[in-house]
Amino acid sequence: HTKFNWEDPLDVQSLLSEEEMAIRDTAHEYCQAGENLLPRVLEGWRTETFNHDILPEMGKLGLLGPTIQGYGCAGTNNVSYGLIAREIERVDSGYRSMASVQSSLVMHPINEFGSDAQKEKYLPRLGKYSDSKGELIGCFGLTEPDHGSDPAGMETTAEEVDGGFVINGSKTWISNAPVADVFIIWARCVWDQKVRGFILEKGMKGLEAPPIKNKIALRVSLTGSVFMDAVTVSHDQILPKSLGLGSAFSCLNSARYGISWGVMGALEDCIARTLEYALERKQFQRPIASFQLIQKKLVDAQTEVALGLLASHQVGRLKDSGKLATEMVSMVKRNNCGKALQQARIVLDILGGNASADEYHVGRHVANLQVTNTYEGTHDIHALILGKAMTGIQAFA
Ligand code: TGC
Ligand code: FAD
Predict the structure, then answer these.
(1) Which one of 93, 185, 245, 380 would you pick to mutate in the ligand 1 pocket, going by the greatest count of ligand atoms within 8 A of its CB?
(2) How many CA atoms lie within 13 A of 373 on its CB side?
(3) Where do the Acyl-CoA oxidase/dehydrogenase middle domain residues begin and end (predicted)?
(4) Whether the predicted pLDDT of 134 surpasses 70
(5) Ligand 1 first shell, C-beta below 6 A
(6) Are strands 182-189 and 138-141 parallel, antiparallel or unpaired?
(7) Span of 131-135, 280-284, 350-354 with lowest mean pLDDT
(8) Best residue among 101, 182, 222, 374 to mutate for probing ligand 2, ranked by most atoms within 8 Å of CB
(9) Do 73 and 123 contact (CB within 8 A), yes or no?
(10) Could you tell me if 251 and 140 are in contact, meaning their C-beta atoms sit under 8 angstroms apart?
(11) What is the mean pLDDT of residues 150-160?
């Protein structure tokens, strides 16, 4: 007779290797213990400040670009990448955003579409954060003020000139942009109308990245606009193997997959905190955990965690064995983000008036989860991706 463990109801742990568990435990320890991630979150949230120590700390532990082979990166599998995202987002979706942009949206495209020289130049400094060459923060610019769900309409252009390219346009809602050293910018090339990626660097003439202030979510992660007014780059700055919007989407596949694990970590934190509260808080002379309505909320939420983690685990294994269909990523991204937002919002009620107090953490997760349900393709856009796969009919336009 096996004892039921409510924290891992369907024994996802039994599906992990020793190495995967060790990576998860390293990430968990960094995120929860000592003076690291959790103790910083409230101050970061209240003051909307980016903590420059965090990415280097993650880099030293091998948590950035972890699936990349070589260049000082850890070379883990995709299941481990998901486990890392889950541990970081257990603390805050904004910290996971910082890390997933760096790993999936900056290091991945350089590794996948970059030249050998670009890989040598950027990957060690984006990933390892431990040598004397310094450290780099990256951002990924796809979304534009007038083109979010429909990036194919992008207006940013790249024009070939003597010695390189001139880039004009603007991007908005770009994570890490105000502090970025390296900008992966997607632009339509005027010579063949195809979208390609370009690597821009902080300080280039005509490049500005002002912050978008006063966000009501993801406040520990900086978000900005990117304005490009005739930014001139050399031929060395195009990602030579990128071609078409599919190259940008391939980065999203990796990030969306990580988010599907991450949001389950955020929901797990909401459940753990509200369960503890329900056991301690008494009304009508009884712990509120003794009321059926409270128990149902907790059980519904934990059920979604168990199912969501199993689904992401399966997608990770298929990704690791080269059997991934990208629609699988849409399914787990959509399901897990939607369920996390819905269930976190429901367990928040358990806190009563304290739901409004930031030191109870759950309200912060709920605010963050609205963004995770929106970025990297909204809940409804992923429904349409899956609807197209089921019916053969595209319903976007
Ligand atoms: P469509 O005609 O369907 O496709 C254009 C080309 O792309 C290929 N493709 C993919 N390739 C790899 N992976 C995928 N998931 C792919 N999806 C499509 C496709 O095969 C085609 O290739 P080719 O060679 O035939 O040209 O494209 P569409 O223009 O109709 O797009 C439809 C739609 C809605 C699916 C797409 O535009 C979409 O996904 N929209 C959502 C936009 C989005 O996700 N933006 C994310 C911005 S980045 C971000 O939010 C970062 S937040 C990070 C953080 O802080 O954590
Ligand atoms: P819109 O596309 O205008 O959508 C508005 C609404 O209309 C949504 O509900 C959508 O589902 C719906 N809708 C749109 N089209 C259809 C349709 N055909 N059928 C039915 N419904 C439809 N982008 C980046 O490139 N890089 C980043 O690092 C990044 N970080 C972000 C960080 C934050 C904090 C936020 C909030 C966003 C970030 N984004 C980033 C942008 C994000 O990807 C977009 O906000 C998202 O893709 C949605 O685009 P939009 O905001 O323009 O909404």
Answers:
(1) 245
(2) 21
(3) 139-231
(4) no
(5) 97, 100-101, 140, 142-143, 149-152, 175, 244-246, 249-250, 252-253, 255, 326, 375-377, 381, 385, 396
(6) parallel
(7) 131-135
(8) 374
(9) yes
(10) yes
(11) 98
The two three-digit tokens of residue 81, written as one number? 């990448």
* CA 181 to chain CA centroid, nearest Å: 19
Is 47 within 8 Å of 123 (Cβ atoms)?
no
Contact of 183 with 141, CB cutoff 8 Å: yes
135 is annotated as an active-site residue: no
Residue 126 pLDDT more than 80?
Answer: yes
Q: How confident is the model at residue 34 (pLDDT cuts 50, 70, 90)?
A: confident
User: 186-226 pLDDT, tens per residue?
Assistant: 999 999 999 999 999 999 999 999 999 999 999 999 999 99
Residue 375 alpha carbon to ligand 2 centre in Å:
6
> CA 356 to CA 349: how far, in whole Å?
10
Average pLDDT, the chain: 96
Alpha carbon distance 362, 335 (integer Å) = 20
The structure tokens 């910082």 sit at: 98
Residue 41 in tokens: 């979150």
Cα separation, 241 vs 250, whole angstroms: 12
CA-closest candidate to residue 365, choices 91, 158, 154:
91
Task: Indicate whether this model's pTM tops 0.90.
Answer: yes
